[in-house]
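note to self: dont lose this again. the chain is below, predicted strucutre after it. 235 aa total, dont forget to put it in the shared folder this time
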Amino acid sequence: MSRRSGVLEFAVLGLLRESPMHGYELRKRLNTSLGVFRAFSYGSLYPCLKTLVGNGWLIEESGSVSQDAPATPLSGRRAKIVYRLTAAGKDRFEELLSHTGPDAWEDEHFGVRFAFFGQTSRDVRMRVLEGRRSRLEERLDKMRAAMARTRERLDDYTLELQRHGMESVEREVRWLNELIESERAGRHQRGGAGQDRTTERDEGRPPQQDQSGDTDGPPRHRGGSLPDPSDDTAK
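---
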């Protein structure tokens, strides 16, 4: 499985864990909730769905079509297939959610993993955040060394482009430091799983669930959004 298809599988299973959807609804969620998938088409999504169905992780059911669904959906006929996560699919998503290896730190994967941090246990969140920070610090060291070697040979515009790329990575490292500190503080300062669920019930929101029973996450970053890895123009 390619890296690109692997991250799509993870995102599809994660979104369908929230609720069943037909293909068009799923594509909209991928586009609007997970910006890395803005360029995805039915040509990419449909084979992924079929593979997941074949693996027993999804089932296809007849269902109604939302009013904004296109006239020509996934398979060339009116979209009446709703995809629902199976018990095996939930287990598969939990397995993927627990992965903390290098793939989880890369630009494309990290953004999608972060989007599902609300369903991820704190220890896994910490390993992913620290791994991402370590990867970016390595990238910064290489960028600084490259700039030091080539500074005298570069024109002002190329030098400015490299500086912009380096500042983008530095900005994300600072953001990761804030998140990591918030996670660490949360271990001691928050009331734990019982308090979180009481608060959620009082506010009329369903409690999050994960393997650890502890899903409370860090405060929203001051910038309000995940730094865009595409800003790194000088990898």
